[in-house]
Amino acid sequence: MILIVDDKPENIFSLKTILELHSFPTDTASSGEEALKKILRNSYALIILDVQMPHMDGFEVAEAISGYSKARDVPIIFLSAVSTDKKFITRGYTSGGTDYITKPIDTDILLLKVKTFYRLYEQNRELNEIQASLRSEIEFRKKVQAEILERANELHSILESIPQIAFTTRADGNIEYVNREWLRYSSSGHAFPSIHPDEEDLALQWGRAVASGEPLELELRMRRKDQEQYRFYLLRAMPVKEGQKIVKWVGTFTDIEDQKEAVRKKDEFISIASHELKTPLTTIKAYVQLLERDMEETNPVKTYVERTLIQVRKLDNLIADLLDISKIESGKLKFNKHSFRFAPILSNAIEMIGQTYADYTIVRKGDAEVDLYGDEIRIEQVILNYLSNAVKYSPDIKEIEIETSVTKDNHLYVAVKDFGIGIGKENQAHIFSKFYRVEDTANRFQGLGIGLYICAEIIRRHQGKYGVESEPGHGSLFYFSIPLKRSAGGNEPTGAAEAPLTNS
Ligand code: ADP
Questions:
Q1: Most buried among 200, 287, 317, 362, by the most CB within 10 A?
Q2: pLDDT value at position 500?
Q3: Whole-prediction pTM
Q4: Residues 310-327: what's their mean pLDDT?
Q5: Residue 84: its pLDDT value, please?
Q6: Contact indicator for 274, 322 with CB cutoff of 8 Å
Q7: Please, what is the Cα angle at 62 between 59 and 68, to 5 degrees?
Q8: Residue 88 pLDDT level (bands cut at 50, 70, 90)
Q9: What is the pLDDT of residue 331?
């Protein structure tokens, strides 16, 4: 908007008419005082200021305007009827004017000047806007950078305070920070510590993890720069994401040598203890069996001997499980694989459980007339384990279902279903792990948490699958599936290489 300041209404009228005819919006003031008030309130692109006005002349108005920060840069064109000599012009410019026009006004010249100033004003305004937005962008970036720096410093102080070796890398996997502990293992803050020559190259493994974008968990042997001996470390690295994008990785190496050693000692103890227990127990079992066989049915002591035999068998199974665990650990669990019919194995397992737990009903469903290739004793062991767990963990509802079928991809599928205590989702993923028992119910039911671990190993070694579906309070369904025997002896070579199963 253009402000026209003149004490003569006819001058205002003619200027206003000319400018509006050329589409310039205008405002008017009939004195210097009124002009100053309006300038304080509004923003103008240009001020056309009459020099000769009573009270406050145009120069005084211009000088006052130059004191307002808001209007200091608004161009002013003086209108004057009088002197165009040098002194007048100088005063005009020093008081803050940008140009002048003498009366009578030449309309063309006036319009040319107005257009030029207006355009300059518009360009100036745009430049100011761009400058303001650039300034706020710079401020924003500075703030974000300061925040990032603060967060990085915070993270670094945390990583400095932990006993582990810690590092961060950029999204591309290049190391950007290492803590002090790192430098005991690597002479450079830019290269991973060197690892045992038998381990797979760490840089390669790291490269794969970065490319996959998945968290990395890895056990490896490393040693301190000043030590000869290698120790086991657990490397854990997590991607740090902003939205979906990985922005960095944070990783630690934790010394797990002592844990490993404790596990090694425990495994060794289990192995020695179960071997040592096995021999006397076998002798006890043999004698009690003889005793039971030779006793008259009418002998009142016979029931005690029978009960002893049941307990001895339980102990025998327990020790056999512990021996299996040791064999799995040392890679010595052997399988005696050959072709066999599955139906008799299943009937036998059901009969054994039925006899031991006479108050339970086992409902059999589906077709089991198939040939398998594998270790029949071990497959029976899995079914017995599933069935005895079903009995153990459903003390109230004494019905169990066992269903068998052949899947489309030629596998035998076996599922044991009970209506007992069930298992929560959070525990389902762990129950096939070694020594895992559901904590809430562990006190109510006896056990060591190794049966399912052995089942899992047996099924895996038969190239099969296993799992559980369950809902707490509504029972569980444990299943496994293994490939059927291929016709014309297709899948036999795996077994042929296996040594026969031994009990020692
Ligand atoms: P154990 O029964 O000796 O503890 P397992 O390895 O056979 O060991 O089972 C591991 C755990 O899985 C058990 O401790 C129990 O918590 C849970 N579990 C196994 N079978 C069932 C089942 N049928 N119903 C509910 N929980 C079960």
A1: 362
A2: 34
A3: 0.62
A4: 91
A5: 59
A6: yes
A7: 150
A8: low
A9: 87
466, β-bridge pairs: 480
> Does the pLDDT of residue 456 top 50, yes or no?
yes
Q: What is the pLDDT of residues 22-39, one digit of tens each?
A: 999 999 999 999 999 999
Q: Which of 384, 398, 421, 437 to mutate to test the pocket of ligand 1 (most atoms within 8 A of CB)?
A: 437
pLDDT at 387 over 60: yes
Do residues 116 and 2 touch, judged by C-beta distance below 8 A? no
Nearest CA to ligand 1 atom 13: 437
Which atom in ligand 1 lies closest to the alpha carbon of residue 438?
16
Instruction: Give the Å distance between the CA of 434 and the centre of ligand 1.
Output: 11
CA separation for the pair 337, 323 (Å, rounded) = 20
- What domains, with CATH codes, occur in the chain? 2-127 (3.40.50.2300), 162-255 (3.30.450.20), 265-330 (1.10.287.130), 338-483 (3.30.565.10)
Q: For residue 58, give the amino acid letter.
A: G
Question: Which residue puts its alpha carbon closest to atom 3 of ligand 1?
Answer: 447
Residue 350: is its pLDDT beyond 90?
yes
Which of 394, 426, 452, 477 has most ligand 1 atoms within 8 Å of CB, for mutation? 452
Q: Which residues line ligand 1 (CB under 6 A)?
A: 389-390, 393, 418, 420-423, 431, 436-438, 441, 447-453, 476
Taking residues 280-304, report their average pLDDT. Answer: 94
Burial 51-77 (b: 16+ CB within 10 A, else e): bebeebbbbebbebbbeeeebeebbbb
Residue 450 CA, closest ligand 1 atom number: 6
253: three-class secondary structure by DSSP? strand
Please give the average per-residue pLDDT across 465-473, as a whole number.
Answer: 97
328 CA from centroid of ligand 1 (Å):
19
Distance 391 CA to ligand 1 centre (A): 11
Structure tokens at 398: 């004494």
Residue 501 pLDDT greater than 50, yes or no:
no
Partnered with residue 231 across adjacent β-strands are 222
- When computed from its CA atoms, the radius of gyration of the chain, rounded to whole angstroms, is 46
**Cα–Cα distance, 382 to 393 (Å, whole number):** 16
Tokens describing residue 90: 């100088």
pLDDT bin (cut points 50, 70, 90) of residue 59 is confident
CA 389–ligand 1 middle distance (angstroms): 6
Structure confidence at residue 358 (pLDDT): 93
CA of 433 from ligand 1 middle (Å) equals 11
Q: Which secondary structure element, helix H or strand E, spans residue 234, and what is its range?
A: strand 231-242
Q: Are 400 and 388 in contact (CB under 8 A)?
A: no
- CB–CB of 52/81 below 8 Å? yes
Please state, rounded to an integer, the average pLDDT across all residues of the chain.
90
Q: Cα(358) to centroid of ligand 1, in Å?
A: 21
The predicted model gives 113-124 an average pLDDT of: 88
